[in-house]
């Protein structure tokens, strides 16, 4: 209805009639359908009679209307405001539409994607399935960010899609073209990943699909309908109004994150109940993380504020542990102003994930360490905050232990505990036991309760070993293989780094990870390489040279050494994928590459120099396998025109190898022990003593291999004096060589000497003669094969060319 301002041309009688209509009874307000139709026809006639250019009859009619006192309508340009047009009718229709909440709209989008996936997979259009599945995954992320939980329709969709993928036979796969096959493989990988992430929900669905789908509706129907009486009197209406405004505007265009953070900070101070504080913090903390979405890493001041908010949330939850709990399995609230109904224990469960907050805080901390230059003081200052995040992780673990049943923790069915325990292991597995004790003592000094999983004990010397054993056992019980593999590799790394080689080696061999690691995620492959390298370094520290060489060989000779160990020096940009960032570890967790090279080359020296001396001295020398890695380095060093004094680590080792070949073991020891890289070992002096002893033993073996043809008998006392070894040690080394048939000799206990058997070893002249005979035989065999296959044809061709040459010369 138009306003009276636009009906200024109407008569007083019309005004009076309108007033009578307003004062009429309710029965007169409803108009029958026939009257409405007649009124609409009359309005259409009036509209058809209107014209911009009126004729005389119109003027006369208007005059007669004025004279007769009939109400005059408004002017033409004002009549549009009084006559309902199509725009007014459409606006009325919009008013009558049902307004859906953001949650309902999101669910409709997910159901539409699921329907499209169902129809596309029926027709074999896997490209469309891939596109819709990506949309579905994005909507799931939005649902989890808004604390809506994981919809049951999503679980049903991925389970059915996984079954359909498994039903596709190998013959059908071969019939797919390249594009469809690529899309099919992508869908299969993403579905498997989604199932791994939601393994517990998928298992529940497969056990009883009907009850799983009806679970949410059944809970909603049995829940008591909240009324105004259930609202606590202390609830602040203005707080919830501002809270809803922030929640509804989040994610929309022109959303000012900083301004809304200030709003929520004000709501925190004005909260009058634990429930109000909890829901505000559950909104404030994600907004703080949103500030770093377009940055390489979260600024330190913002990270500090986020850490304070998370710890403040834990303080509120710990004080009200018997009244309110934030759980990932709680029901979503339809109205935030109405607190959830208490359960049988009188606890109100609020949907949220404090563990996710701690994980994101830890990720932001790691991102900053990946980006900051490790050779600056800024990196050291940032690394000091590791104690803060570790204390927060322990606090999250303690809270999770309080809200999760002990049976779920013991059986390993709860993934929340596994996630937080995995984060805790990430911060301690690469440290020495003494440093772990300091970190633990600082973290537990701020806690008021003990852990149910593993209690802290400052006086227990084996506490760190027990800590790693118990934390790893929690992950071993998980159904997700990723947790189990990660726990095993971190466990192996810890024992190897703390110089417990045999325990780490036994765990490594029993795990059989070396046969399946190529199918694992890149992060696990990097962790596997790190554990293998640390195992090799541990073997070297314990004097196990052969084991160290075998463990380090594959990594040490690879040109992609940095990438294999997750120690790339590239700088990240906004376009860098998450997978690439996860492969690179912070600098303080790196393994020194120069140390790896030094250990590998030293091990190669101790193995290959005696083998090189042994080659050519026995008849079956050609059958022996000889490593060629160190030999290539040595040949390159010998080919240099000018060989100056050693400068780098590799130069020292090459000079030591040449000295050992010449029998100058003392010079070799001096060169090797002067390498400063050994100081990186905590027991560097013990390592140097071990190197000296190994050089003495391998020098003795090299001497016997090289000069055994020049002796018929050699005194053990003389060898002991020459290499400064006890006679018992010399006797043991010689006896082992005789037992392994490395030398043809025997021990004379009467004269305390080693007696060599002449005639078995070859002299240098005999060795050269045999080599010449083998080359002549190879040349003869080659000529015979040449004559048998194509020699005759080539000979005929040569004869034909010779005849043509003669004819040409005769004509001339």
UniProtKB/TrEMBL annotation:
InterPro entries in UniProt: EIF3C (IPR027516), EIF3C_N_dom (IPR008905), PCI_dom (IPR000717), WH-like_DNA-bd_sf (IPR036388), WH_DNA-bd_sf (IPR036390)
Biased composition (Polar residues): 219-233
Primary site of residence: cytoplasm
Gene3D superfamilies xref list: Winged helix-like DNA-binding domain superfamily/Winged helix DNA-binding domain (1.10.10.10)
Keyword set includes Transferase: no
Record's compositionally biased regions (Acidic residues): 17-49, 56-66
Quaternary context: Component of the eukaryotic translation initiation factor 3 (eIF-3) complex.
Name of this chain's protein: Eukaryotic translation initiation factor 3 subunit C
Organism: Cyberlindnera jadinii (strain ATCC 18201 / CBS 1600 / BCRC 20928 / JCM 3617 / NBRC 0987 / NRRL Y-1542)
Classification lineage: Eukaryota, Fungi, Dikarya, Ascomycota, Saccharomycotina
Gene behind this protein: NIP1
